[in-house]
Design brief:
Shape: elongated
Number of domains: 2
Strand content: under 5%
Number of strands: 6
Largest sheet: 2 strands, parallel
């Protein structure tokens, strides 16, 4: 850090602190095995599903998403609406940051000649140079913390929203499986009763419609009836899970020609994961900081979901939930958003630009890389959130730039844009 000027050294310290805080929060969530856990062991219907260890704030985000989805009907578009609303709520922070960035850019224009003079005068005395730079920044009201603080707050909001989405994914996994389990046992008992009647097996209907063969019945016939009932129950689960209403709720952007969605299940990553989560994934035994649904065995899950696991996706045998299109777009849009934001800060003098190039590049690539990691490891729903949020940031920045240019033009501080080509001599 010795080669950095005072401005970039301070920016770097602030950003490193923000990165440490955010990564610590993420790791804390990842390592907390009880966070967002849904226990189905004593659940009889989907209305009884609750999170056993969800904070009030993440629970509020989950409830807000569920409430919005009741009105929108498709969870992908629900995420879009949620993101737009959240960005509008946070817009005062965006406006504050952009006003500070605009003031900083103008201050940098004024300071450039003086910074260049300081560089020439004290270039060999780094300590004196940084002291003089600090005094000049203070004199010109160049605010480094003011430009970074809204971004740090946005990062904290990013983490809280991530926790809320993680809780929502756990809820949806629990709801999907409980619905499939209810469908399975309802059809199983109905088919078992039907087959027992056909084969002449005596039986008793006990609590909740469960069919039990009486003692001393033909074991071969009981086995035949069970196989028949299991097959019918698995088919019923497949029909229910792949119904148009269920698919349209989980999928995002329908592609009619392929009869698939761009992301077939937005509660799973947009990539190489199967559209229907496997037992180890839904229970949090595989993946990083995935939602946890417990209270059932692997044998039960695999039997109930036998005809839907590994189906309905892209690629060979339909194994892929998505085509990685949204994660790639999220990285590109995130990079463009960061570049626009850094341009708005104003550029340092040419003498110091070379020594700060590495720092600026690190700051420019950190957020897009983090977005890429989240897009690859977490749900398609959260990837939609990141993509829409970055896209709105770009639109907001461009709008702010246009307004700023018009203000400068009115004050005579900007040259008008000419669309006429210059004549050649």
């Amino acid at each position: 850090m010795a080669r950095l000027d005072y401005r970039h050294k301070t920016f770097l310290k602030i950003w490193l602190l923000a990165i440490v805080i955010v990564l610590s929060l993420i790791l804390l969530t990842a390592c907390n095995s009880n966070s967002g856990t849904y226990d189905l062991s004593n659940v009889e219907n989907v209305d009884q599903i609750t999170s056993s260890a969800s904070s009030s704030l993440t629970g509020f985000i989950r409830k807000a998403l569920i409430g919005l989805n009741d009105k929108v009907g498709n969870f992908g578009w629900t995420v879009v609406v949620f993101t737009v609303i959240l960005r509008l709520i946070l817009s005062p922070l965006d406006i504050w940051q952009k006003i500070v960035a605009r003031k900083n850019a103008k201050a940098m224009q004024r300071m450039k000649p003086q910074l260049e003079a300081l560089q020439a005068k004290y270039g060999d005395d780094k300590q004196r140079l940084q002291m003089e730079q600090q005094q000049l920044y203070k004199k010109e009201h160049y605010s480094m913390l003011g430009a970074c603080l809204p971004t740090i707050i946005t990062l904290v909001v990013f983490f809280l929203v991530f926790a809320g989405f993680r809780d929502m994914v756990g809820y949806q996994f629990a709801k999907d499986y409980q619905t499939s389990r209810d469908t399975y046992y309802e059809e199983y008992n109905a088919s078992l009763k039907e087959k027992y009647d056909e084969l002449g097996v005596a039986y008793t209907i006990v609590e909740d419609g469960v069919v039990k063969a009486n003692a001393d019945q033909d074991l071969v016939k009981i086995s035949q009836a069970d196989a028949y009932a299991v097959d019918n129950a698995q088919t019923a689960v497949k029909d229910q899970y792949n119904s148009d209403s269920a698919r349209s709720m989980r999928g995002w952007i329908y592609i009619k020609k392929a009869d698939k969605y761009l992301i077939n299940n937005i509660f799973v990553q947009d990539g190489w994961k199967t559209s229907v989560p496997e037992y180890t994934f839904i229970t949090g035994q595989s993946g990083f900081a995935t939602a946890r649904v417990v209270g059932f065995t692997a044998d039960e899950y695999n039997k109930i979901m036998a005809k839907v696991i590994g189906t309905g996706g892209w690629g060979k045998n339909g194994k892929w939930n998505g085509l990685l299109i949204l994660p790639i777009l999220s990285i590109v849009v995130g990079f463009f958003s960061q570049r626009l934001a850094q341009k708005a800060q104003g550029q340092p003098p040419a003498q110091t630009a070379g020594s700060n190039q590495g720092t600026m590049k690190m700051m420019q690539y950190f957020m897009p890389i983090m977005i890429g990691v989240f897009a690859l490891l977490y749900s398609g729903a959260f990837t939609i959130y990141m993509f829409v949020s970055s896209l709105m940031a770009i639109l907001f920045q461009l709008t702010f730039n246009i307004i700023g240019y018009l203000i400068d033009l009115k004050r005579g501080e900007a040259a008008p844009i000419s669309f006429k080509s210059k004549k050649k001599d």
